[in-house]
Design a protein that fits this description.
The complex is a heterodimer of chains A (814) and B (56). Chain A is α+β, with helices and mostly antiparallel strands and 814 residues long. Among the domains of chain A are: 36-163, Alpha-Beta Plaits; 316-401, Distorted Sandwich (Calcium-transporting ATPase, cytoplasmic transduction domain A), CATH 2.70.150; 490-517 and 638-752, 3-Layer(aba) Sandwich (Rossmann fold), CATH 3.40.50.1000; 519-636, Calcium-transporting ATPase, cytoplasmic domain N, CATH 3.40.1110. Chain A is elongated and about 110 Å long. The two termini of chain A are 53 Å apart. Chain B has 56 residues and is mainly α.
Chain lengths: 814, 56
């Protein structure tokens, strides 16, 4: 008895494991678990068998939970000694490996994975780092192997990948720990010093004896010096570096204030009279470091999720050992291996074709969307897409030695050489620094004439009260809030300077394939009788060529069922011919179809010409030796391309296209988007794109997705990688759009504008505040004590403005 | 009041101990991932009630 099919209007039951709808054919009737695929069933079985069914109670109810891939992957190579030597650490009989996992998305995943010792005997410990999406597994060498563990994790629905070594990641990690350490010391010093200062202020004029008074001041001095000479040292080294480079920098007035305050404070402590500033200085150091830490954390969160994406190579390779095909992760391939690459798959390494002929799409590397023919002895590059037939290649280069690897290397260089704009805070800060130093000196000199013993006091008061906290604290806070808000909209910003650079319009270069267009062929239109369509669809099902896939998708449907296709012949770069339901059908370009039929009637020719004008390539169909139909196949523009470009132009951007594709196609796309033909460049190599970006005056924004864009992305002031972009482009770009389409570019500009407006508002508030205070300090109306009270107050106002200003727009937009 | 001569150094010493402890924890990477431990603490409860521990 066949299982009952659910009626079409009742919702399909949800898979017990992953929550996705269960296809009718797999439905096993009411009651009992339902599974959408064999992978989910196996995973569910494994989880229940090991007494871990609490997983289903723990997890979120949203569908799209980790979904095991039914395809079996072999992880045998994970056990190879050289692999273990590279990725594992060994401590007395136990091995530990960190794997990146795809699919961790809720607390239940963490729970399930950390219970790995129950699922996989011999595993000692499993620790998940959710933020990093990694798992550290420790196992006993003599009881199990990494391949068994990896297979178990894979069966649960989390595909494991060894993490490539990333030196920068390690540096960032220690940097963050260092920042946290400094923050802790500064925080402790600030808190304790405020307590001591409290007693001092409250004890003023009361019964406090002179020796207690002196002792408290000494304690404050010591704690303050710890803060200034310990965590506060970064400001001195920053100021020193800025002074040597002759660039006014934010650290300069801070260091001046700290230095002057500390020296005067020590002097006054030793003398036993006069103001000591250590409470204020400790709090200052703490607040400044807090601002830096918040900014660093926000940026790193976004950057590490991008770099994790870039560090994972989720591709598999079919390696052939003694005539048997074994699926392995492409990381383990070595030169000399033989690899089979099937139609629609990506070449995992550089190599020469040993057997078979095919056509490949090298657009990832060259940007050209036209297929290239490939035969025995020809060279194939990693990252190219195999279009028509399976081939075997002898691997010649892998990983970083491949051509793509070399482009990546170029990217690495360009990222390092990226010109750094002077940050807005530094630009304004520079003028501020000079003004404050000049004013302090003038105040000191003026008071030296009036009352010499007061001169130093007045000058220091001014330095403290004018301390540019707003610039140091409010700017990072505002930017951090903006970066966080962008991340919630799935726009990952690697560095907050992006927001500043985008604030003023400049030149924006866009890649064509995959960025402005959808990146794959589609049928744009067709002229001809409809009865031909099922025949075409049935025939094109036989091919994996992108044009064939597009035609099969557009013309396919229930109507092709039962059509018998025989005698199929494919011609690389020409077309396909076969007998469908007794009809001789040929589909292909003009030359190919003319070969199969006599002539093309003028009406179809005219239709073809109009298709070309719209940017599509004409594909003719001949049935029984008569050309009956013409269809246009092309890479369709994204729906939001035109509105986005219009909005960008309205904002004052100079928009242009940089593409590796054929110049005619690029010109056609440019014309439809209403762009200046002089700004639409086609037929460019990755190097050409870089020189275009470098040669553009003013701020340059590059938007792209392919490997061929990545060097240009790295060279631009701001680079935006679009969704599903190539690994290299993620690495090179400063912003990654996690949502499909170009709309994110506009949202990013909007965010940047808001953040900059908030910063300017904060600056105005704090400058006004400082002007008043500086005036009072110069006149000698406020004492250093009052300055010490007013200063944190000003910081608080500024922080409040920054956070409130950054938050308000979100309420507006929702 | 003179108790301050003893109390204050002790307070500062305690603060130093706390700071040193924090710094050591930070250097060992205890603050690298603040997300997982926050959910991990919940697991033992669920683990104990929903699935009795039959293994170590």
């Amino acid at each position: 008895m066949s299982p009952p099919r659910p009626l079409s209007d009742t919702p399909a039951p949800a898979c017990t494991h992953c929550g996705l709808p269960v296809p009718g054919a797999r439905w096993t009737g009411p009651g009992g678990p339902q599974f959408c695929c064999g992978g989910c069933e196996a995973a569910h079985q494994l989880i229940v068998d090991r007494g871990l069914s609490a997983y289903y109670e723990l997890r979120d109810d949203e569908p799209g939970a980790a979904r095991p891939d039914a395809a079996q992957v072999r992880f045998d190579d994970f056990d190879r000694p050289d692999f273990l030597a590279r990725y594992a650490t060994r401590t007395d009989g136990e091995l530990t490996v960190t794997l990146a996992l795809q699919g961790i998305h809720c607390a239940a995943c963490v729970w399930l994975l950390e219970n790995l010792p129950r699922i996989c005997d011999g595993v000692q410990r499993a620790r998940v780092a959710w933020t990093q999406r990694t798992i550290a597994v420790t196992w006993r060498e003599d009881t199990t192997s990494l391949s068994t563990i990896a297979a178990a994790i894979d069966r649960l629905g989390y595909r494991p990948h060894p993490l490539r070594e990333d030196a920068r990641e390690a540096i960032e990690q220690s940097e963050e720990r260092e920042l946290l350490t400094r923050l802790a010391v500064a925080g402790a010093a600030a808190g304790n010093n405020m307590l001591i200062a409290g007693s001092l202020y409250l004890g003023l004029g009361s019964y406090m004896s002179a020796d207690i008074y002196g002792f408290l001041r000494l304690a404050s001095c010591i704690v303050g010096l710890v803060a200034i000479l310990g965590p506060g040292r970064v400001f001195f080294s920053g100021a020193w570096a800025a002074a040597r480079a002759r660039v006014p920098h934010m650290d300069l007035p801070i260091a001046l204030g700290l230095g002057a305050g500390a020296i005067a404070g020590v002097w006054h402590t030793l003398r036993g009279t006069g103001e000591i500033y250590f409470d204020t200085l400790s709090v200052l150091v703490f607040l400044l470091l807090l601002g830096r830490w918040i900014q660093y954390r926000q940026q790193r969160g976004a950057a590490s999720s991008v770099s994790l994406l870039a560090r994972m190579t989720p591709r598999l390779a079919h390696r052939i050992v003694d005539g048997i095909v074994v699926d392995v992760p492409s990381e383990v391939l070595q030169p000399g291996d033989t690899v089979e690459v099937r139609a629609t798959e990506t070449f995992p390494a550089d190599g020469r074709v040993l057997r078979g002929t095919t056509t490949i799409d090298q657009s990832l590397l060259t940007g050209e969307s036209r297929p290239v023919a490939l035969g025995p002895g020809d060279e194939a590059t990693a990252g190219a897409l195999n279009l028509s037939a399976a081939v075997r290649i002898g691997v010649e280069a892998t990983g970083t030695d491949t051509r793509i690897g070399k482009v990546l290397h170029m990217v690495e260089h360009a990222v390092r050489d990226r010109p750094r704009l002077v940050a807005m805070a530094d630009r304004i800060g520079a003028r501020f620094v000079i003004a404050v130093v000049v004013l302090a000196t003038a105040t000191g000199l003026a008071w030296a004439r009036i009352a010499p013993d007061l001169a130093l006091d007045r000058a220091i008061t001014l330095l403290i009260v004018a301390c540019p906290c707003a610039l140091a604290l409010a700017t990072p806070l505002t930017l951090a809030v903006a970066v966080g808000r962008a991340a919630r909209r799935r726009i990952l910003i690697k560095g907050a300077d992006v927001l500043e650079r985008l604030a003023s319009p400049g030149t924006m270069w866009l890649d064509k394939t995959g960025t402005l267009t959808e990146g794959h062929a589609r049928v744009l239109g067709a002229v001809g009788p409809t009865w031909v369509r099922p025949l075409v669809a049935a025939l094109e099902r036989q091919s994996a060529h992108p044009v064939a896939v597009a035609l099969a998708e557009a013309f396919g449907g229930e109507t092709t069922v039962g059509l018998r296709v025989v005698d199929v012949q494919q011609s690389a770069g020409g077309g396909i011919r076969g007998t469908v339901d007794g009809h001789d059908v040929a589909v292909g370009n003009e030359a190919f179809v003319l070969d199969a039929a006599g002539a093309i009637v003028p009406t179809l020719r005219a239709a073809a010409a109009s298709f070309v004008a719209e940017g599509g390539s004409p594909i003719y169909v001949a049935v029984d030796r008569a050309v009956t139909m013409v269809a246009a196949v092309g890479d369709r523009l994204r729906d939001d391309a035109k509105p986005t470009i219009d909005a960008l132009v309205a904002r004052g951007f100079e928009v242009g296209i940089l593409s590796g594709d054929h110049p005619e196609i690029v010109a056609g796309v440019g014309a439809r988007l209403g762009l200046d033909p002089a700004r639409c460049h086609g037929g460019l190599t990755p190097e050409d794109k870089v020189s275009f970006v470098r040669g553009t005056k003013g701020p340059v924004v590059m938007v792209g997705d392919g490997v061929n864009d990545s060097a240009a992305l790295a060279a631009a002031d701001v680079s935006i990688a679009t969704r599903d972009g190539a690994e290299a482009s993620l690495h090179a770009a400063s912003v990654y759009l996690g949502q499909p389409g170009l709309h994110g570019v506009l949202e990013l500009l909007e965010l940047s504008g808001r953040a900059m407006r908030t910063i300017r508002r904060t600056f105005t508030v704090s400058l006004a505040y400082n002007l008043v205070c500086v005036g009072l300090a110069m006149a000698g109306t406020i004492t250093p004590l009052w300055a010490a009270v007013l200063m944190p107050l000003s910081s608080l106002t500024v922080v409040a403005t920054a956070v409130a200003g950054a938050r308000l727009p979100r309420e507006e937009s929702t | 009041m003179s108790v301050l001569f003893i109390a204050l150094p002790i307070a500062l010493l305690l603060a130093t101990v706390a700071v040193v402890a924090f710094v050591r924890a930070a250097r060992r990477g205890q603050f690298d991932d603040l997300q997982t431990p926050a959910v991990r603490i919940l697991f033992d409860d669920v683990d104990a009630t929903a699935t009795p521990r039959d293994e170590t």
